[in-house]
């Protein structure tokens, strides 16, 4: 017996005296028996608890099972998903925070599996535990009112309506608003007297808010606000939803009213703190800085998460009126935050706040310095970097300093995606400024080059030698930097490998990244591998941060040009005099071209300032500079007219009259002069245009009716008397079509080609081109004859000059094996000629495999005959289709310039076959 109890003691893990062991064993036996009895009882109850029966026992069983099993698990999954959303949602504190966290598509996706599990559990509850069968009424007795109310229920499981509500909320959090709305409507139809119906109506309003159906939201709010039975526990939920409704429509005053009511009734601390922060932002937005500061103070007292507390302190500090007496205290407080270690990771945001402070105080220069410092100290907060870049871009734009503004808009665009608010405006503004900066640089560059061209030769060469010396010094420094970077990369590779091994061996520490020294080391080294050593500066990620100019040559800058240095093969050129002398306009033709570029740039600068940037002062300066420097310019009339337009925009009557008189008196035959001197001139032009349109339509009706002689007569009249170019091309085309019925195909084709040449780029030319294409397909001999004539004009036959052999092939084919075979063929049979094989793209469709050089035509022809018959050439490449040709070096250059292989094939067939 003792041995038996010892064994049992081992099995059940019991310790103590033998008597205790016996007692424990007896207790265990009794519990096991009781468990078996309970299990048998549950099986018995379950057997009688079908949802087809509605008894007290069945209702109790399905209610208990639904609540403590299925619904509990579904609810847990839902809360788990919401916790993930809360943890992963990143607030943008520079903007008014959203009332709810479910609007971010990316964050919502994190909780999708939890919401799917919730939906699955709720569906199981409804399908397995819903009781809709009526309870049995014994002896058909008369029911009391309360019993009749119970008897008339649609559902007898008290958790089915909860399941519907939870299902709708889960679909809502998946952003499946259609399914969510369908579930909520089902709940409202089947359980119209349940409290859950009120909550489902609030969720319906949230669906309408998210989908922009604000009228439907307002109807729900009107019903619920005036319903005395609306549950007190849902007031915070309702008022926050109404506040969200107004926020989405930028109605801040109304949003404040409802969010204050929601905050008063909200019991959950984190949510209430969020509402208070939003209220502080809204009061700040509406100009009530005192109330805003009070709410920020309330947020701080709530002991919120660190980041929210930080922004509450920053925003509270900046809530002061311009010129306020406590400005020094505010600056002191912000400076104190910079010295506090706990704000080390937030220094970029503190500097941005200081920029806001100085801007509010009217010191834009110091504000810019602090915004730029904010960019420099940014450690990976992309949202803050975008904010700082955009603030700098807008400030420089307002100054205006368009060169710096363009750089910062460009940096902003490098970080934002197309769904960023006002992304298209940023693209347009950056594009306009980029074009403007190009023109500014052209003028500065050409002026510098012309200034250098005016120096005597000795002084110019001395200036160039100084630049070459600086280039050598820069090259030496660059070589040293690259050598150091190479060592760093090798070290980084070793450290990254070691860190990876450490992580693999330990399985990771499970710490947050920035507390994990191994992970940080690995991340740092990975960054260096990708980017190398980068100086801490604006636009560090951009390889080209400056625009190439020759200011250094003119003594205006000592900075090396990074763009030119980055181009392969350029360094050696920059060490020679010729590199610089070729760029300086030392001849009359080069100087004329330089002036032409300045003239074009000045005119387009003026247009950009005037039309896109609305900077009329700088636009006027550009046009005036153009007129002063180039009085004989072809832009002169248009420049004067733009100055006239600017004067009108600025309501400067004196200047308006001055430029009007200049145009009318000095350029009387121009369109501008006629418009300015005769206000009805435009109306007259419009009347004439309408008459010509009517004349054309009538002519076209004659064409449709086959009255070709009348079409030709009317077209001739129009071409002799009308001036509107668009209509003239249409009349000319109609005339050719009418003549086509009487002329041969070749003449018809020639007339169409002449029309295309006279009106290139027009719709008429496109239509005529399609007709020519059709004729060429129907009668290819016309095209061939034309190609033959053109080939005779392009190519010349000279058998004594150097020649090449060419294989023509499709550009998309893999020709590596063929080139290898040709090289072997040359070594076997033509080793004495030292032939070279090149691959050249002729156009988008065809490539040339060129073998050269051959001393004369006969050598190339002999080579062609030999290689065509050599089986080794076609080894492993039977699928390649090749066309062999022989061509002189001079004709080869012509072929590359002309781009039409068919024309040279005509010449080849006539002269080499």
What does this structure look like?
The chain has a four-stranded antiparallel β-sheet with strand order 2-3-1-4. The protein contains 40 helices and four strands. Helices cover 68% and strands 3% of the residues. Helix 11 (235-247) packs antiparallel against helix 12, helix 14 packs antiparallel against helix 15 (306-317) and helix 36 (780-794) packs across helix 40 (901-911). By secondary structure, the protein is mainly α. The chain starts with a helix and ends with a helix.
Task: Please name the defining characteristics of this protein.
mainly alpha, 913 residues, disordered N terminus, 4 strands, extended, 40 helices, four-stranded antiparallel beta sheet
Structural class: mainly alpha
Average pLDDT confidence is 79
Helix content percent band: 55-70%
Number of separate strands: 4
Strand content: under 5%
Shape: extended
| Largest sheet data | 4 strands, antiparallel
Q: Segments where pLDDT lies below 50 for 5+ residues?
A: 1-17, 35-48, 503-572
Separation, N- and C-terminal Cα atoms = 117 Å
Strand order, largest beta sheet: 2-3-1-4
Write the layout of secondary structure elements.
Layout: H1 2-12, H2 18-47, H3 56-88, H4 105-110, H5 112-129, H6 145-151, H7 160-173, H8 177-190, H9 196-210, H10 214-225, H11 235-247, H12 252-265, H13 269-285, H14 289-301, H15 306-317, H16 327-339, H17 347-360, H18 364-376, H19 382-398, H20 402-415, H21 423-453, H22 457-506, H23 517-531, H24 562-565, H25 577-581, H26 588-612, H27 616-629, H28 636-649, H29 653-666, H30 671-677, H31 681-704, H32 708-721, H33 725-739, H34 745-758, H35 763-778, H36 780-794, E1 803-810, H37 816-829, E2 836-841, E3 846-854, H38 857-868, E4 883-888, H39 889-898, H40 901-911
Antiparallel strand pairs: 1-3, 1-4, 2-3
Helix pairs in contact: 1-2, 3-5, 3-7, 5-7, 7-8, 7-9, 8-9, 9-10, 9-11, 11-12, 12-13, 13-14, 14-15, 16-17, 17-18, 18-19, 19-20, 20-21, 21-26, 22-23, 26-27, 27-28, 28-29, 29-30, 31-32, 31-33, 32-33, 33-34, 34-35, 35-36, 36-40
